[in-house]
Amino acid sequence: MRKFLPNPVINHDFSVDDSRKKPNKISSRKDEHISIALSESPSVELDPGFKDYRFEHNALPEVDFSEIDTSVNVLGRKMNIPMMISPITGGSDKSRKINKALSELANDFRIGFAVGSQRCALTDSSLEITYKIRKYAPDILVFANFGAVQLNYGFSIDECRRAIDMIDADAMVFHLNPLHEVFQMGGNTNFSGILNKIEKICSRLDAPVIVKEVGYGISKTVAQKLADVGVYAVDVAGAGSISWSEIEKKRSNDIVVHNASQAFIGWGNTTAECVKEIADNVKDIKIIASGGVRTGVDMAKSIALGADFCGNASEFLKSAMISRSECEIFVESLILELKTAMLCTGCRNIDELRSAKIKKVS
Q1: d(CA 12, CA 24)
Q2: In this structure, what DSSP letter does residue 81 have?
Q3: Domain annotation covers residue 344
Q4: Is residue 354 part of a domain?
Q5: Do 200 and 223 meet the contact criterion of CB atoms below 8 Å apart?
Q6: Does any domain span residue 345?
Q7: How many Å apart are CA 160 and CA 203, to the nearest integer?
Q8: Which of 31, 161, 186, 284 has its CA 20 to 30 A from that of 54?
Q9: What contacts 44, CB < 8 A, 6 or more positions away?
Q10: Are 194 and 226 in contact (CB under 8 A)?
């Protein structure tokens, strides 16, 4: 007989009012995810891999720091730096406030923004308001999002179009999360035939399709399969940041889940490893580096290893829960770090950074 631990205590107090409570299980789960991610630091033991690479320092760069251009153009929109706020949340009043604050920040700094999974709003239209951020972010890349596994649980191209229309998105993101779903209470674990369904979506949807992991990495083998069916970009979301198996362990009082999830501490491919292997082996697909991309130097290394742009969720979320000023400090630090790395490698723009000399040191 399965044994259970005492009910886990979830702290919902993270400086956001909760004046509008919906009896929606997915909404409650999303708030629990945020609470645990903020208060209990469910990080993995793996380093994202950037420490394994080192730039060749250029002491004579022949570059004017004030003229360094960190901007990139993606899907017809100009971003000031190659960074997006990766999917975080949506579906509750707490997450509505977080999405509003971060989308305003993203628009002010001209970086991309992806909403969290829209699954709950696609099944309960009253929750759509928690995702509607385009009015706060009229000028930037905005990405729609739900789990690819939902294509095996009733979702189709109609839900993709609704997700895009809901937020006037520039692209559709499908997240892959098999390990997460296994340990999530009531998780959806039928991942059979997903590639074929993604292919059909790519051929019929009037928007680019991006496929991302949630913290365990996308290998070159998987990336090649996705490129072959028409996926525009992969977001590697490698190991080195938040561990979803750890988050679900903290949510569960099932002792078997607790024990089994322990075996997956340190599971996954690191972010740097994923980016390099895909860049070296897979053609005709864009690469987003996320999973432990915490500094402008991490961004610079990601670009030099082959990424087209980068993503981060946890650092933006942590900053947002402190203040708008803290968010601004974080982004301004990213920009200064990135520009300094470019100066010290003799790079005037992001295209030159792609060819910067970088080597593995371990």
Answers
A1: 15
A2: S
A3: no
A4: no
A5: no
A6: no
A7: 13
A8: 284
A9: 215, 239, 240, 241, 242, 243, 246, 265, 266, 267, 268
A10: no
